[in-house]
From TrEMBL:
UniProt keyword annotation of Nucleotide-binding present: no
Organism field: Streptomyces lavendulae subsp. lavendulae
SUPFAM superfamilies per UniProt: Chaperone J-domain, HSP40/DnaJ peptide-binding domain
PROSITE patterns: DNAJ_1, DNAJ_2
Sequence segments annotated as region (Disordered): 240-277
Gene name as annotated: cbpA
PANTHER family recorded: DNAJ HOMOLOG 1, MITOCHONDRIAL-RELATED (PTHR43096)
Gene3D superfamilies documented for this protein: DnaJ domain, Urease metallochaperone UreE, N-terminal domain
Name listed for the protein in its UniProt record: Curved DNA-binding protein
GO MF annotation terms: DNA binding; unfolded protein binding
């Protein structure tokens, strides 16, 4: 996994959210395993998704900018906890040269330094009474769970392998709810950072990232798909099949006189929602002309051109 998420996306640390999104989309299209058959494309694609999942969220990006690659080990309310503890008049006991006492805690990535603070009092205020004596609770951690559109639609049980605290791979059994959406988090209780002493471990949150799809485009639970139709189907009307993210097909009626870009809604055929109404499936029509014409087809098109007074550029 890339150590520097900005480098992974090829953007500067001052890049705007739009620049980050544009860089991700460009690289994701290039390295998507369905498009790029290079042996390293899949791993590169995973790195891109990981980088984008962090930098596309302003809050997560700010934590990454501040704490580096260990940002997931820091409690989200770290500043509030330190601020609450710092106001209690601590007894600075450790020293590290000039400038006053310095407390070092290497679990925060960059050394955390505070003048005049006793480490036991600090942990006591941050994590509750008795924390310094009974141990420090483990920090919540977050990782990415990359899914295809089809996998997100179906849900089900998945085995996920992630790097553990010592760098060794760990396997987790995860129940993915059907219709999970991009950015949704799945909680694995007690699978986060280890606590010290008798303190409980933190939780592990898997943030879902749905991979770009060559056919489907997601908007929340709604699904958009382009449906090619022949010129005569668009002109005369027809019933055509539409692929669904569940792997099947649905039927949609194309009204006579339809043009490219027209959207036809299939209610409830989008991503499932266990707690409410399913999303909708939008079929976006795209008129496709035969790449080559037989003699009779050419004659018929020529007759149509001669008989019709329709000018699309004047409409």
């Amino acid at each position: 996994m890339a150590r520097d998420y900005y480098e992974a996306l090829g953007v500067s640390r001052s890049a705007s959210q739009d620049e980050i999104q544009q860089a991700y989309r460009k690289l994701a299209r290039r390295h998507h395993p369905d498009v790029n058959k290079d042996p390293g494309a899949e791993e590169r694609f995973k790195d891109l998704n990981e980088a984008y999942s962090v930098l596309s969220d302003p809050k997560t990006r700010a934590r990454y900018d501040r704490f580096g690659e260990d940002f997931r080990k820091i409690p989200e309310d770290f500043d509030e906890r330190v601020a609450a503890g710092a106001g209690g008049g601590f007894r600075g006991r450790t020293t590290a040269g000039g400038g006053g006492p310095r407390v070092r805690y290497t679990g925060f990535g960059d050394d955390f330094a505070a003048e005049g603070i006793d480490i036991e009092d600090l942990f006591g205020s941050m994590f509750g009474a008795g924390a310094a004596r009974g141990g420090v609770p483990g920090a919540d951690q977050e990782a990415e769970l990359s899914l295809t559109v089809e996998e997100a639609y179906r849900g089900g049980r998945r085995t996920v392998t992630l790097a553990g605290p010592t760098g060794q791979p760990r396997r987790y059994e995860v129940d993915v709810p059907p219709g999970v959406t991009d950015g949704q988090r799945i909680r694995l209780a007690g699978e986060g950072g280890r606590g010290s002493g008798d303190a409980a471990a933190g939780d592990l949150y898997l943030r879902v990232r749905i991979q770009p799809h060559p056919r489907f485009r997601l908007d929340g639970r709604d699904v958009h798909v382009q449906v090619p139709v022949a010129p005569w189907e668009a002109a005369l009307g027809a019933t055509v099949p539409v692929p669904t993210p569940g792997g099947g097909t649905a039927k949609v009626t194309v009204p006579a006189g339809s043009s490219s870009g027209r959207r036809l809604r299939l209610r409830g055929e989008g991503m499932p929602n266990p707690r409410g109404a399913n999303g909708d499936l939008y079929a976006e029509l795209r008129i496709v002309v035969p790449p080559t014409l037989g003699d009779r087809e050419r004659e018929l098109f020529a007759e149509l051109a001669a008989a019709s007074s329709y000018d699309p550029r004047r409409t």
